[in-house]
């Protein structure tokens, strides 16, 4: 198994959440950015420190980042050299696909792990240079998930 590169919290108030993490753990942040996936507008930020990075997302009701029931730890994220193959392997191993961004022109998937109450995210490794440019300009390349047989 390779190293994960981020832990994500889905929150109702991104400023409050990041302020709390800064005050209690000393986390510093890149600037919060606005994003859109399909009809969903969301706000996202990554910690300046990492990997592993903290990711915080504030999304609207009905979105993959819906926090109307309360803020929560949501997922652990891995880079994948082959999201399509790895998503099938995770599903075969008991972590079914809960959300697939491919129909929206993106390449990440969320997989449900009910025993832990979390999701695992696979992100296409081809997006890593853009991630580093945006969130960690001095960061080194990170390893991809190695699921193996």
Provide a quick synopsis of the model.
This protein is α+β, with helices and mostly antiparallel strands.
Could you please describe the fold and organization of this structure?
With 149 residues, the protein is α+β, with helices and mostly antiparallel strands. The chain has a single domain, classed as 2,3-Dihydroxybiphenyl 1,2-Dioxygenase, domain 1. It is 20% helix and 33% strand. It has an 8-stranded mixed beta sheet, covered by helices on one side. It is globular. The termini are close together.
Topology:
Blueprint: E1 6-10, H1 14-25, E2 33-37, E3 40-46, E4 53-58, E5 72-80, H2 83-92, E6 97-100, E7 108-113, E8 118-124, H3 128-135
Parallel strand pairs: 1-4, 5-8
Antiparallel strand pairs: 1-5, 2-3, 3-4, 6-7, 7-8
Which CATH architecture would you pick? Roll
Largest sheet: 8 strands, mixed
**So how many helices?**
3
Estimate nothing, just give the exact number of structural domains.
Answer: 1
> Into which percent range does the helicity of residues fall?
10-25%
Mean pLDDT: 96
Shape: globular
- What is the β-strand count? 8
CATH superfamily: 2,3-Dihydroxybiphenyl 1,2-Dioxygenase, domain 1
- Major sheet strand order: 2-3-4-1-5-8-7-6
Topology order in helix (H) and strand (E) letters: EHEEEEHEEEH
CATH class: Alpha Beta
Classify the beta-strand content into a percent band.
25-35%
Q: Unreliable runs, pLDDT <50, ≥5 residues? A: none
Terminal Cα span: 11 Å
Question: What is the C-alpha radius of gyration, as a whole number of Å?
Answer: 15 Å
Please identify the structural class as seen in this structure. alpha+beta
